[in-house]
Amino acid sequence: MGIKDKALAFSRKFKLDSHHAIERFGVFFGIFAVTGAIVISASGASAYQAERDSLSQTALYTSDFKTSKTNLDGTVDGVYTNESGNKALVMMHFSPTAQISYSAADYRAFLLGSDTSLNSEPVSTSGIKGSFYAFGSTGYVGVLLNADRPFDRQVVLNLTVRANAELTTPGAEQAQSSGKLAGDETFSKYDQWRVFFNPGASGVQKIAALNALTFDPAQAYYEVALKEKEAEARDALDQKLVEMRTNLTQIQSYTSDLQTTKIDGLFLRPPTVPVSIATDKITGVSAAAAKDGVSTLALQTKHVVPGGFDLNWRAGNVYDGYLDALVPAGQSYAQFFTKKRDEGSDPTSQQISDMQWTLSDGTGLTKDYQSSDVTMRPLMNIMNNLSQAYQNYSRNKSQYESDLSLDLLRLDASLRDVQSNSTIRDDKDFLTTLH
Question: Where is the chain membrane-spanning (predicted)?
C-alpha cells in the first residue's frame, strides 16, 4: 500500500475524509483549542517568571514616604548590603529642619514579608537582628539588619518604622487619612511609616561600611549621603578654575592691546591692579587637556578673599577631613566658621571700578574725555574689556574661595556631626520579625 492509500485509510478511520466534515471540524477545533491553551499557559508562565525575575533584581520599591500621624515627608536613599549579603542597611532621611527625634531610643520597627500583591507573609530569611541609627542632627536615619545567612530573594520585605515620640502636632483628619491609606489601624494609633525592599536582590548596591566587623555610622553616611555631593562640589570647584583661567587669559590679551591700540600716538598705560588679584595664577592642566583625563588646575594667590578659605581640596577628601588643616589651634570649627562669616565683604570689585585709566600723555581717559567721544572709542573699548575681565575674575575668585569651598567644608562639618552625635538602638526589643 502506497503512502497515498495509507493517508486515505487513516482519514476514513478517524472520519477526516470529505464525507465527515462536521467530525473533521471538531477534531481540528479541539487540536487548535489544546494548542492555544498550551501557548497561553506557556506565555502566562513566562510572564509570571519574568515578573519574578524582575522583582528579584529590584532592591528598593519605596522611594519616599510620609509619617502617618505627623505627616512628615521622608525619602528612602536606598538599601545597601555587604559583600556576603547577610547585612542590609535601609537608609532614609527627612529634611534637616523636620521636627523628628534625633534619639534612636525613640524608634522601633516591625519586619514582615510581602508577596507581589503586597500581602503580608512570613519572612523567609532566618535569624534577623535589627538596630536603628540616627545620624546626628542631619535628618538621616537607618535600619541595619543582620542575618545568620545571606538574605533570600524574597519578593518584598515590609519594614514598618514607628516613632514613639511625636514632636509635631497632627490634625485628626491627617491621622485618619494616613491610617486608612496604610491599611493598618496601627498607622492611626502610632506615628509610623512603611518601606518595601528586597535586600537579596541581584541589583542591590554594596558599600564598604557594611563589610567591617563594627558598623561605623560616619562611614556609611559618607558613602550614602556625602560621596556624590562631594564629587559635585569638587567638579564645581574645578569648573570655576577653568573659568578663572579663561579670565586671566583675557586679561593678558587685553593688557597687550593697551600697547598696540593708539589714537594720534596716545595709548593707555596699564592700570594699577588691586593687590588682592595682581599676582594670581592658575597652574596645571584641565581634564580636557590632560592625557589621563585628570585635572590638575590650582589657584596660586597671595591673598584670600574675606570670608574665603585657602583650601587645598585636591589633596584630601571629606571623609579624611579638611577642617583640621584650616582651623587654628584652640578654635572649634564652629568658631572658625563664625569668624569667617564676620570678615566682611570683598572690596576687590569696588577697587576695580575705581582703577585709574591714564593715557600716555598723563591725561585721564575717563576724566578728560567723554564716553560719547567717537575719536576715543577704541581706547574706551579696551578699557571696558579689560575692566570687565578683571571684574569677572574677581567675582569667580570670590565664588571659588568662599561659596564653592564652603560647600565642600559643610560636608566635612556634617560628617563631624554624625561622628559626634549619632545614636543607636540595638536591643532585642527594637525589631519584631514575623517568621
Answer: 21-48
Q: Phi then psi for 242, rounded to 5 degrees?
A: -60, -45
Give pLDDT tens digits for 38-57: 434 444 444 334 444 555 67
Burial of 194 (0-12, 13-18, 19+ CB in 10 A): buried
Whole-angstrom CA distances from 81 to 191, 201, 303 are 28, 10, 47
Q: Which three cell numbers mark 108?
A: 522601633
Please report the DSSP string for 76-119 in residue order: EEEEEE-TTS-EEEEEEEE-TTS-----GGGEEEEEEEE-TT--
pLDDT digits (tens, 9 = 90+) for 374-409: 888 999 999 999 999 999 999 999 999 999 999 999
| 243, 118 Cβ separation under 8 angstroms | no
Q: Please tell me the number of Cα atoms within 13 Å of 234 on its side-chain side.
A: 18
**Percentage above 90 pLDDT, the chain:** 70
In terms of Cα–Cα distance, which of 431, 433, 349 is closest to 390?
349
Q: How far apart are the first and last CA of the chain?
A: 70
Cβ pair 421, 137 in contact under 8 A: yes
Strand partners, 159: 111, 195
The Cα–Cα gap between 66 and 94 comes to 10
> All 3 cell numbers of residue 184?
493598618
